[in-house]
């Protein structure tokens, strides 16, 4: 199974505390997440010779200046420029570098510290097409864009708000077992349906809460993996696709449909061999598009899948076992790493009260909102091997 | 006494590439790029250096009809920028122009609760605080 990244192993996961506000610098949050990940891998900082980093707020600093700040001498670096797709993409690029001998110990991380106002400000200037042809037109930020997607999905598949409610309520239930999740109070359908309206048909609990935090994982080459004694994961597959399809006027984002065949043929397994999914849940509609795109259920069948299978940590197919971005919070670009962190923590057996029994799972990324849609999609399949 | 005044909504920046589009808006007209490659000929928005369908760099400008169809819409109740607060709640839509391309715009005088998908719309150039002026659309009788 999955020889694309043969020998490469994932051996550690770490997360900073998530908070609505922080006195810590981005560097401080990042250092905390990476240190925790290295500790769980039983590796010292001095072993790190690869860094993959994503952050919206870090500029003018970047992965190079972070290496200097932390006193590292990397032989491989990656700066994620694909928004929430970057966590999975950084992991995949690092896996190639580790496989090819470019480095031996890579830290893959993301960090940001947002509130609602600063999040809106970032998105206003996210790229040229947003800045000139969406923001001055009154697009309503990410909420407005994904409200358009949500209405189109509801119209096309004849589903209602309750059909998204089951997903959000399941995630909230998962968050209650995650001490680091920011939204942990119980939520029922009535709470979900009657929440404050934001951008019809979206209400408050369809929208992620901007927050502060960092997530990190540690990956090693075959040479280093042989010296370690803790649990280890293999990356069975890692794929990305951008601007899929380029000639559409307006469509629901379909990148996972575009990469599905490559993803599963690389992994040597199918959608029904997976035990969980960590989906990119900036909005529930996106999680549904991913479930359908990956072939876990037929087009328009995601709500039924969620309802019938059960997505909580005790359910038939757990999804976003830490509460996802919708209940844990979206720390900017770390929204593209929180699923990677959660997948690795689960498979390494480090998930505490929310631990599930699973050997193999998928994690998705999605990002770079632009004219018409987010441009970048990514997905990876991870398996415990030791 | 300090009076807190909301900032104006953000104005687009005008570059050489997009000047014909925004000059059109100033004149109350919608102008689009069109691929001059005969085998392609598609209309394009927003302005680009090449045709995104066939990568030809032979692009011309056409005056468009200003008509379109609503692909999807949302009623914005929490704005992304304080400059839009005086307008909220308002309807924002993804529109397929009659010539083909996607166009994002606010709808004026639209029913905040109605289902508007597939309704026909027409462009309007209302005076406002933005420079250059940003076009809006009105919903045509169904």
Summarize the entry for a quick read.
With 386 residues, chain A is α/β, with parallel strands linked by helices. Chain A has 14 helices and eleven strands. The model of chain A has no long low-confidence stretch (mean pLDDT 97).
Please report the total strand number of chain A as a whole number: 11
Tell me the number of helical segments of chain A per DSSP (H or I, 4 or more residues long).
Answer: 14
What order do the SSEs of chain B take from the amino end to the carboxyl end, as H and E?
Answer: HEEEEEEEE
Q: Helical region count of chain B?
A: 1
Strand content of chain B: 25-35%
Estimated helix fraction of chain B: under 10%
Tell me about this structure.
The complex is a heterodimer of chains A (386) and B (142). By secondary structure, chain A is an alpha/beta fold. Chain A contains 14 helices and eleven strands. In chain A, the strands form two sheets. Chain A has a nine-stranded mixed β-sheet, sandwiched between helices. A two-stranded antiparallel ribbon of chain A has the order 5-6. In chain A, a hairpin with a 2-residue loop joins strand 5 and strand 6. In chain A, helix 7 packs across helix 12 and helix 10 crosses helix 11. Chain A starts with 8 loop residues before the first strand and ends with a strand. Chain B has 142 residues and is mainly beta. Chain B has a five-stranded mixed β-barrel. In chain B, 35% of the residues are buried. The mean pLDDT of chain B is 95.
């Amino acid at each position: 199974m999955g020889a694309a990244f043969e020998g490469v192993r994932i051996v550690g996961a770490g997360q900073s505390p998530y908070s609505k506000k922080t006195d810590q610098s981005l560097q401080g949050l990042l250092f905390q997440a990476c240190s925790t990940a290295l500790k769980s891998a039983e590796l010292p900082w001095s072993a790190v010779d690869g860094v993959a980093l994503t952050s919206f707020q870090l500029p003018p600093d970047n992965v190079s200046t972070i290496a200097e700040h932390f006193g590292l001498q990397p032989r491989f670096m990656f700066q994620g420029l694909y928004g929430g797709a970057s966590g999975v993409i950084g992991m995949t690029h690092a896996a190639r570098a580790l496989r090819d001998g470019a480095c031996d110990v890579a830290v893959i991380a993301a960090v940001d510290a947002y509130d609602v106002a600063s999040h809106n400000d970032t998105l206003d200037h996210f790229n040229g097409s947003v800045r000139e042809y969406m923001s001055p037109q009154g697009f309503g930020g990410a909420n407005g864009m994904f409200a358009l997607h949500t209405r189109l999905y509801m119209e096309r598949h004849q589903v209602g708000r309750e059909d998204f409610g089951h997903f959000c309520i399941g995630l909230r239930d998962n968050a209650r077992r995650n001490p680091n999740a920011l939204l942990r109070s119980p939520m029922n359908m009535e709470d979900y349906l009657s929440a404050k309206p934001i951008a019809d048909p979206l209400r408050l609990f369809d929208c992620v809460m901007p927050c502060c935090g960092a997530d990190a994982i540690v990956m090693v080459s075959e040479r280093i993996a042989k010296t370690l004694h803790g649990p280890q994961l293999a990356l069975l597959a890692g794929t990305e696709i951008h601007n899929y399809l380029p000639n559409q006027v307006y469509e629901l984002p379909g990148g996972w449909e575009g990469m599905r065949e490559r993803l599963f043929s690389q992994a040597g397994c199918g959608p029904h061999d997976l035990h969980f999914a960590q989906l990119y849940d900036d909005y529930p509609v996106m999680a549904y598009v991913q479930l359908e795109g990956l072939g876990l259920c037929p087009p328009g069948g995601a709500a039924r899948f969620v309802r019938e299978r059960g997505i909580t940590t005790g359910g038939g197919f757990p999804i976003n076992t830490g509460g996802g971005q919708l209940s844990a919070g979206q720390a900017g670009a770390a929204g593209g790493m929180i699923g990677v962190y959660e997948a690795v923590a689960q498979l390494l057996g480090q998930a505490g009260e929310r631990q599930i029994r699973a050997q193999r799972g998928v994690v998705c990324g999605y990002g770079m909102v632009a004219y018409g849609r987010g441009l970048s999609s990514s997905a990876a399949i991870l398996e415990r091997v030791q | 006494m300090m009076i807190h005044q909301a900032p104006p909504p953000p104005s687009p920046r005008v570059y050489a590439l997009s000047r014909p589009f925004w000059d059109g808006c100033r004149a109350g007209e919608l102008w689009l790029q069109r691929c001059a490659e005969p085998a392609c000929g598609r209309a394009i928005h927003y302005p680009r250096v090449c045709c995104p369908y066939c990568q030809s760099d032979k692009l011309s400008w056409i005056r468009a009809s200003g008509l379109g169809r609503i692909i999807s819409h949302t009623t914005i109740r929490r704005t992304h920028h304080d400059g839009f607060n005086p307008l909220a709640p308002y309807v924002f839509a993804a529109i397929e122009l009659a010539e083909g391309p996607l166009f994002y715009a606010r709808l004026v005088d639209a029913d905040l609760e109605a289902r508007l998908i597939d309704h026909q719309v027409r462009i309007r150039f209302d005076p406002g605080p933005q420079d250059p002026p940003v076009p809006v659309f009105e919903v045509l009788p169904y």
